[in-house]
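Every protein is a chain of amino acids, and every chain bends into a shape of its own. The fold becomes a row of whole numbers, each drawn from a learned catalogue of backbone shapes. The protein below has been through that process, and both of its lines are reproduced in full.
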Amino acid sequence: MSLLIRGATIDVAPHRHHALQIAVGTAGPFQFECRETTNMFDGIIVAPETPHRLDSLGGEVAVLLLEPELGAVREARGRLLGDRPFAPLPAEMADKLRALCFQKDLPSPTQALSAISTGPSSPRALDPRIAGLQEKLRTLPQKRVALADLAAELGLSESRLTHLFKQETGVSLRRYMLWLRLGNAMARALSGASLTEAAHASGFSDSAHLSRTCREMFGINPQAVARHSRFVQADPQSNS
């Protein structure tokens, strides 16, 4: 999934998530904390699974969360971030993203991604078994399936599958499934479902379980995400 959150009072708890994160202050700099270091930024790019905290200091911030397996996202990560946990976003890209966020309608994450794109990308393709598995997992209604069944379908042992998945994506299969379930729940909530309905339909035990997971991955509660965000499901065909 990809998600764009824009809010005037983003002040979150320390958290980490599967997405590549890009944030820009729309009216001024924000405070960013990572690895016991705190700095002010106008724009920043943050690697997936990097524990961090972003404080808007009462100003408005646009936070773009992008599925890191997408080809354009992997290209942007390699070009702008490399192996670093985070880096300042180049000023010209921050300005382009900021301008998009001042449009009458909040841009989709796909439109926002265009602000950091430089043209066609050719990053290393994912292992086709893992790319195919991700496409399959996205189609599961509740994003729940036994590891043994997935491994057998791919002709791999469970340990080999979990190792290969993390090697290719940088995240464990269990945590990736949790990310998909959270995305599914947020999509339902943004379409008008109650948090309880969204939680049950996405495989969470209840709305409290959904809220805990949302705070763990986004640092804010799902109501805040739903009030200030645009959501799109990532195109599975974009993974290559």
Notes: Residues 231-240 have pLDDT under 50 and may be disordered. The two ends are 16 Å apart (CA to CA).
